[in-house]
Specification:
Layout lengths: L3 H15 L4 H11 L4 H13 L3 H15 L36 H30 L3 H13 L5 H14 L3 H9 L2 H5 L8 H14 L4 H9 L3 H10 L3 H15 L3 H9 L2 H9 L5 H20 L3 H6 L5 H6 L2 H12 L3 H16 L14 H16 L5 H22 L11 H13 L1
Helix pairs in contact: 1-2, 1-3, 6-7, 7-10, 10-13, 12-13, 13-16, 15-16, 16-20, 19-20, 19-21, 20-22, 21-22, 22-23
Amino acid sequence: MLAPRHLVLALCALAAWCSEEVPSEELAREVLGSISDPQTLSQLLQWSLNHSDLDALHAKAEAIRAEAGDVGSSVLSAEGNVGEVIDSGSVSEQKVLPAPADVSTEQRTSVRVEASAESFAARREELSALSAKMFPNQVEIMKSVMRDALNASLELDVREEALLALQELVEDLDNAKDFMAIGGFKQVMELLGSETPALVAGVAWIVGTAVQNQRELQLQMLELHLMAPLLQLLHAHTAAEVRTKALYALSGLLRNCAEAQLQFKQGEGVGVLLRTLADVSSPRLVRKALVLLTDLLAERASREDEELEGREEERSLLSTLQHSPELCEAVLGGLRVPDVDTQEKAVEALQSMLTAGVELDSSAAEGCSSAAMLLALQGFIAQAKGGEGSDEVLALAQRLEAMLVSAQLELNAPGYPEWCGLDSTACGRVEKEQMGS
């Protein structure tokens, strides 16, 4: 920091220089040149500005400019650049920049305020236009594409594109809620009765997308009585894509929603799902049905629901599945489908069945017995060991095999009964473990 004595000297030098005392100019340079602290320099600059006659400096600059004949250059007044200087002509003919005396303080203030207001208004319009371009009104867009989807006079591909746009829009939760608020779902649901499969599938896809783990929307869809038409589409529609999208929508409605699961059970949904699992002509549909079955069994087995599993236990979806002989047949059929992905989904479904307490009939001579399930499981394991499928699912299948073998040995030991099937080493391994314990 500059010493007080040096600061006084510097101020005196500046004052002398500003008052045009020539002998003090060298002193000012000498003193100012010795100052290196930015804060001190800033203080000196502010002091000099506060104690300078800007009008006099302006007049001096005009005189210097006139003497030098510097045509075309501009000179700032004490209050800034007001007006323009013409690029040609003599100095006397030019409109030089007016001094503060030529323009009143009120005029200068008014000019600045007006310029600021105009600049602000223009900037606001620019930002509003940019915002509208980057963040368009989603509700208006949804209304527009919905009108196109419902307009029977438009070409089919236009209506399909409109439904696809809606499906993408309702992926956003806020958009989905807004679409429900404007009655959009109720209106597009009319297309579920269309004779055009592409439109029916498009609406089911929109519903399934919107309700994914969104309880509020799940309950609102139930209020629109959506369960029955979706089950009907899954059960009876002739188009595979419609059935697939209907199953997708049902999956979204059912997951983590006890109210929807109750409606599903009451609407004979379990029977529809099991018949879907038995449709080996559509492996893709069977896979998706197995995934839904696995999720429902796992969910109901891992969560205690007082309303459905306690006071109303007999009405629960889990109870219905546990006492359904067709369930075992469906999973066994999945293991027999000549499609690795479907077989893997069947293995996962089998694990969920056993975890949920679904018991296999160990004494059955035919049908879905534990022996039949074991043979089908061992067939999958042999195929998976050949390099097909996931190592993780293979490990799961081997654990399930050990469980089934153990259960059979408890009923049939000692010896190696015929049901040891394709992999007798598994029977021997489990039997030795039991004998050792």
